[in-house]
DNA sequence: CTGTTAGCGCGTTCAT
DNA sequence: ATGAACGCGCTAACAG
């Protein structure tokens, strides 16, 4: 691999001059630029990023921790971050947490050790304590999809409760009174917040609420199918179901189809996330929009600003979900 | 940021000793290990990756170029690569090509400049020439989902023709004789190969084949819907449709539903890829499995081996697709 | 077992 | 406008 030294020799100039033309310094003669450019091309010179990072104390790299890249939810997130990072000339180092505290911790450590000055972290398994510690160490660290009061200005999150409230309220407005809830069994904030939104909506509308209307499962298709099956087994007079997310809704749909219960004719269903699959389900799924791209963009920009030690004008970083009406919810009719 | 020098001072040893305990060198006394470890902890020392990379001439980083991370197909690919990379202690630098030659080229250059010694590249827009040049420059560069004869041992690809042949043949075996094809309008190898597989299967079974049975669209849901609509407009007596991929199949499904044509009762449909959405479609989509995880693993391992300048035992790197039978294809019946 | 030292490739003074 | 020289943080001889 050719170095500046080689290029300098080839161009009959000093390494300083080479460095200048590489970095487009104004103080470089036309002649020098010509000669050096030619030499670089001839030798196939590539600046050594490590050496650069070492001397300039900056890797120009943004690190990102997601749950699992193969989930399109995280895919969208990465894409949005990539867009803003690329625009700013930053590279992307990526790691998966796979919902394990150990893995999340290791990945964050890794990203820090690799010298990422900007960090967008999606961590559900680490404690607030631990994340706060990381945040204090790395000025450019931003948390996405999580809110920790002590470092509120470093968090970009969603109002989960409101989302679930919105969904349940929509069912209620459609005349449904017996509404079940398919809940995640993962012990994270989102689970509690979304469940709370469902309960709150019932209360605010003077509808009875009972634990028997709630079933739990893994936050995926299988979990949703299982939960729906269990819900059906109870023989409750349900006419609508709110769910933790679109995957569970998909599972519920399967269970209902297997039991010859038509959706939405005999059962309305509403999801959460408005993920990729929502529009492919049958019927197309009415759901709650999780504006993850927008949030990811915001998080990335915030991270870059913070890493740059610039002032950041305070702005709301709690996003609010909105309803996406499709075909899986219709008004309740007694017949 | 604390450096080895700081740690050395704190522990009352030389920087060499610090380096030794960091790298678990056998020649380091218990006492030294104790002292240095304590000092490192006290100072919150983190080894500087750039300095390390500079001196060791290795960044321990694997680069990967995908089309678009937000597509779960690429998500699965990245995940598989991440798994093998992590296991080998490599980090992941990622870039998106977004189906643009310019973007693909820039990203590859970027990954190389960042010092990735291993590279897994998914490029559909760059010419074979250009990719060959990159491959010659970087020993650890491996192409995925593309086959270039001149660098066959650097390619991990799928037998697209066979996949499409398999799909079409399956329809034929189910008694279908009037089979349409929904084709991509992207000008890449895959398009031609899959279309060729469809035509070949018809020929081999002495079935008539005609351009009128083929419609084109973008390789996504909208494109599939459009193509299906156009196909319907021709009034052909089709009883089955093979498609370029699952997304187009999903679009076709929508178009058919809008036109009250029941699937599979009155029209059988088969997809390609066995992507995430296949099992969520209604009816669940019969399709062709694209073993992308397996291929990505293979590509990552190959890349690492090559980057390590080890011998690589020749092995088949053209994967063969298989049928995934679900509910969107049933035997043809005249009524 | 430990310390001293050179140098990885590059950006950046400071002279000239 | 240009070049010589230093140092970024670390590893790897080498000498002790």
Structural features, described:
The structure is a homodimer of 335-residue chains. Chain A is an alpha/beta fold and 335 residues long. Chain A has three domains: 4-56, Orthogonal Bundle (434 Repressor (Amino-terminal Domain)), CATH 1.10.260; 61-158 and 292-319, Response regulator (Rossmann fold); 160-290, Response regulator (Rossmann fold), CATH 3.40.50.2300. Chain A contains twelve helices and twelve strands. A six-stranded parallel sheet of chain A has the order 2-1-3-4-5-11, with helices on both faces. A four-stranded parallel sheet of chain A has the order 7-6-8-9, sandwiched between helices. A two-stranded antiparallel ribbon of chain A has the order 10-12. In chain A, strand 6 (179-184), helix 9 (189-204) and strand 7 form a beta-alpha-beta unit. Chain A is elongated and about 90 Å long. Chain A starts with a helix and ends in an 11-residue tail after the last strand. The model of chain A has no long low-confidence stretch (mean pLDDT 95). The interface between A and B is large, with 41 and 41 residues. The structure holds a DNA duplex (16 and 16 nucleotides).
């Amino acid at each position: 691999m050719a170095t500046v030294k080689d290029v300098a020799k080839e161009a009959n100039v000093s390494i300083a001059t080479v460095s200048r033309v590489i970095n487009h310094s104004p103080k470089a003669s036309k002649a020098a630029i010509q000669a050096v450019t030619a030499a670089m091309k001839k030798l196939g010179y590539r600046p050594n990023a490590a050496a650069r990072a070492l001397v300039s104390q900056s890797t120009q790299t943004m690190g990102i921790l997601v749950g699992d890249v193969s989930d399109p939810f995280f895919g969208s997130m990465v894409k949005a971050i990539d867009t803003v990072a690329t625009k700013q000339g930053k590279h992307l180092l990526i790691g998966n947490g796979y919902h394990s505290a150990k893995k999340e911790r290791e990945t964050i450590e890794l990203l820090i050790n690799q010298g990422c000055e900007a960090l967008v972290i999606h961590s559900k398994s680490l404690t607030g304590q631990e994340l706060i510690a990381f945040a204090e160490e790395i000025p450019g660290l931003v948390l996405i999809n999580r809110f920790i009061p002590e470092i509120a200005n470093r968090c970009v999150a969603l109002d989960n409760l409101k989302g679930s409230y919105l969904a349940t309220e929509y069912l209620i407005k459609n005349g449904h009174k017996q509404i079940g809830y398919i809940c995640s069994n993962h012990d994270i904030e989102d689970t509690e917040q979304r469940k709370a939104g469902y309960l709150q909506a019932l209360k605010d509308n003077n509808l009875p609420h009972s634990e028997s209307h709630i079933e739990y499962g893994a936050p995926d298709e299988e979990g949703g199918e299982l939960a729906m099956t269990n819900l059906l087994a109870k023989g409750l007079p349900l006419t609508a179901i709110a769910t933790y997310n679109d995957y569970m809704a998909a599972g519920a749909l399967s269970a209902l189809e297997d039991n010859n219960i038509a959706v939405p004719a005999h059962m309305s269903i509403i999801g959460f996330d408005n993920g990729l699959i929502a529009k492919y389900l049958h019927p197309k799924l009415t759901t709650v929009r999780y504006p993850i791209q927008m949030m990811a963009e915001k998080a990335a920009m915030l991270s870059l600003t913070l890493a740059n030690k610039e002032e950041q004008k305070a702005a709301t970083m709690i996003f609010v979900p909105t309803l996406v009406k499709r075909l899986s919810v219709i008004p309740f009719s007694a017949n």
